[in-house]
Amino acid sequence: MKKLILMTTTLLSALSLSACLKVGDPIITSSWTTLNYISEKEYDEVLNIVTGTPAINDFRKITYDFELEHSDDIVKREIQFPHPESWKDTLDSIDDQKRYLLEYGDEQNENYKNVVTYHREIIFYSKGLDNREVEEALNAIYIDVYVDSGVGTPTDKVYEVFGTE
After folding, report:
1. How much is the pTM?
2. Domain ranges of the chain
3. How many Cβ atoms from other residues are within 10 Å of residue 120's Cβ?
């Protein structure tokens, strides 16, 4: 009988302690970037805005996607996406040559949703540049994430375009 009372008391104590602890689900993020040559269709679009007759391989496309997912336990979320001009300014500053041409994208950061997304596709003039130069320059562009579940240490992290998490 003493063992039953001891086990019951231990179980009830464990349950009441676990009810007092609020452990939020961690956030899940993914951030990925690709740097590729452009398609024939994209090349036709570029030819409408550039002068001369550059080759298709004189252009590249950066595709950047960011996603953050979290539980309902989050009490505060602040996500700062790159300013729209930051892509243009960064690409044009690599060697002080006008390189930025086209940008497409969208973002979703509605407070009532548990998923945040950011997507960009940027076509630029890449002749004379290697991938390393482009990647280094684009690391000046980042997404700043602050998430607080009200329990423990809040998450405050910066995601660079070509950085590692």
Report:
1. 0.80
2. 30-160
3. 21
